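Exercise 3.2. Students should predict the tertiary structure of the chain below and write it as structure tokens, then compare their answer with the key that follows.

Predict this chain's 3D structure.
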Amino acid sequence: MNTIAANLQGVKSRIERSAGAAGRDPRDIVLVAVTKTFGPEAIRDAHAAGQRDFGESYAQEALEKMQALADLPIVWHFIGPVQSNKTRPIAESFDWVHAIDRLKIAERLSAQRPAGRPPLQVCIEVNVSGEASKAGVAPEAAPALAAMVVRLPNLRLRGLMTIPEPTPDTALQRRRFEQLRALRDALNRDGCGLDTLSMGMSDDFETAIAAGATMVRVGTAIFGPRPRR
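Answer key:
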């Protein structure tokens, strides 16, 4: 077993334990392997070990990998900030977009989604920690954005995503994640029908699972330290 396969198995075991401790079914939690700055061979190794969902943050880099890996059945997630000049390739090539925080971006993705492809699965990014340096809509603004995104014809609004401030304080981590879950629940009471909470990364995904995460985005714990771009 190579290092990536062993690490992937270790992460999946941690997901199973965390889900069990929370009284949840681990099959309800999707692992997105974050491969930004890693090459196609790392993705091939993870895919050979059973991984199917992969996350990228840089559109051009991702498109090159998609071309190199066109023979593999992969679910591609765009997890980084979406720039207006990159919406077309993202709309054309990805299955999921996790970080919508502006109506303009959502409208462009919907308009540029190719005919014949299924709706682009999307999440609204929410800045639960209020950091000025972070992308994401403020929690109080999320309902209005969700109400507009859900009407766009070529998108399917699946849920919410967040990247809270890094902290070793697990109680604070949990409060941030529970804030996102509470917001999802409030939107569902208004009829949004959301089923996805994309939250938790290598250092905090176990806390996120305890708080209700349905997708965790893990890179370093699987692939090791990120190489320089």
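Discussion points: The two ends are 27 Å apart (CA to CA). The chain has one domain: 3-222.
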